[in-house]
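Exercise 7. Predict the joint structure of the components listed below.
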Amino acid sequence: MKPAPVHIDTKIESFLDKELSPAENDAVQEHCATCPVCERLLKEQIAVRKMLAGVTGSEPIRPMWNGVRERLIKSEPQRLKSAFALGATAAAVGVCVGLFVGSLQTHAPEMESSNLWSNVGSTITGETDELLPSLYLNTSDEEGS
Amino acid sequence: MRESLTDDELMARGANGDMDSFRILVERWERPVFIFLDRMLDSPEEAQDLGQETFLKMCREAERYQPSGRFKSWLFRIAGNLARSRLRRRKILKWIRFEPEKHDHGASARPADRDLEAREIRVMVREALRRLPERQRQAVILRQFENLDYKEIAEAMGTTVSAVETLLHRAMRALREDLSRKKMEES
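Solution:
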């Protein structure tokens, strides 16, 4: 029994589009020279391509640049608006943070700045708040003596 | 002077705010983009509208564009995505409105040709193209009319070269069968 002929119809498009390697190209040409089915297919595909080539394209209705430019310019204010909105939000957040910090300061226990500093000093040195003035006193005593 | 610059160079200048570079790119590519969209949509009005949309996107995406000498496939990718989303919208609208398929929409709107036979063939080919599935049609148009090679088509369609090969094989077989059936019907 004779084996069924192998056709190369899947390669014909690539052959016509010059997308095959030189070896594949030669194989397609050799095959089409001996296979009437593929040869007919090749001729039909060439005819389809000629018909497609006959479909000419039309010109744009009007030049496009003016329309593109107008739309670009129109979209710019939107960008500015969003940048402004971002800035306004940042400012609002800043004001809120400022108010919060301010409220913390006003609600803090009434203490004089010297006490505040002595607290900080004691936190750092681990000394009591009475120590700091005494240190100053000691220093002045030493200077005096 | 600027007219002699490559597409990639113009894109880089455009990204830096040089509007004139964008203008040159639009003028350089508006015809091929329009023809591609007209063939995809079969409507010059929609092709004009989406052509502008394509170039607007081109300008807006300029900062992110990677200059690799593949501007054409990048541009046709934008246009192709827009065309396909428009075709999908059309289908949905047709489905909502229960509209039947129109077969002579684009052809009848075109100016009369002198050669009647040639005109009939053109109408026949346009109709056959319209009947192709969207992706097959896009591949055929990019190959046959825009002369993109398989690699460029793959880039423009966001797919592989072997997928392009398959799409083109199926599309051309469908066109061949469709056109030969029509011819037989006529004779």
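Discussion. The CA atoms of residues 84 and 90 of chain A lie 10 Å apart.
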